[in-house]
Amino acid sequence: MKDPESRTIFAGVDGRTDTELPEWYRERHGNADPVTFAEAVRDLPQAIETTVAYQNPYTDEWVETERFNTLVEPSRAREQARDEDAETDPLFHVPTDSYAIINPVDVYGPLEEVLREETIDGTPLGEVMFGEIRRYRGGGEVHMDIMFDGLEVRLPGRSDPITMGVTSGYDFFGEHAVYVEGFAQDGYCSNTMRSLTDKEVIKHVGDVRNFRTWWEELLAQVELVADDLFEFIRDAQDIDLDFSELPFTVTEFYTLLGFPDYLAERAAGDAEANAASPFEIDMWTLHSGATYALTHFFQGKEGASLDQYVRIANDILFNPEGTIERVEQAYEQELEADGDDGSQASLAGERALASIERVSDDLQEKVEQFEEREDALRERFQEAMA
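and the corresponding structure tokens:
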């Protein structure tokens, strides 16, 4: 992803906790000197409304309008008043009068309360929380990863866990006032797993809901995912794709799914390196290859441009049948686009499609357990949000 303008590492909800970063996370962030979550949130830029005027081109007079309101960062506006040459522009956005400002403390202040009260194995979540805050566009766009040491999945043969949490963020530019979704980071390889729950979004219009209740429901969902993620991974490890029997390479597998070439090459390289055989790779390893490419080599920015590829990667793990169907359809479309170059080419194409269909048929007996587990998880989500 594009590098943020600044990063802040945090550990512990506030100064009353004595939280240290997990060893695997500290190793990957060098000599990071973490602050508390409360301190990091209160250091984020705020937004306030000021009036807007336009210049009448015939009189050169400035005329105020109530139809729009300028969003500015107050501390920067004060600095600009004292020093006209101030480096940082206080202006964020000029929205219509229906725009509702939601500042970071409005959202994450209630989360701090929940984290002090909710526990994992008897320990308040606020004492085991850690993560990172990233700023873009002068701090008007913010994304953060919040994880909980001990809320995790441990795979056999690995010393470092997959740690669960949420990724959240907001902006002042009229896109999303705030969003949050389930998230995990694999300490073994630093790969991030996004969209592990449905993304909840609150926009810049309408009434602002009770964020405390919102956070309670969302954290309950994340705990449910942690309970089931190990089972999804274990089942995916039992589903192998034999690329020696398929009409495409591992790299082409990812491009058929919709990855751009540069990501497909990175994903394939990681999957082949971590598989027992570069020709026979299980769906968990293929998923891990995809998250490796997205975590370390994605050239776009956080948000919608990343989300589309995250959905593809997650389907490899959570919906293997749908993944194979997507590959088959894409391959068939490529054959049709190439045209009929003769009976030999047509016959080769039919044989290639038949080999993909055999993989799909072999999946059928294992698909039911995925669907049953996903249905049960969705049902528990609904109960948690009720």
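(Above: one complete record from the training split.) The two ends are 36 Å apart (CA to CA).
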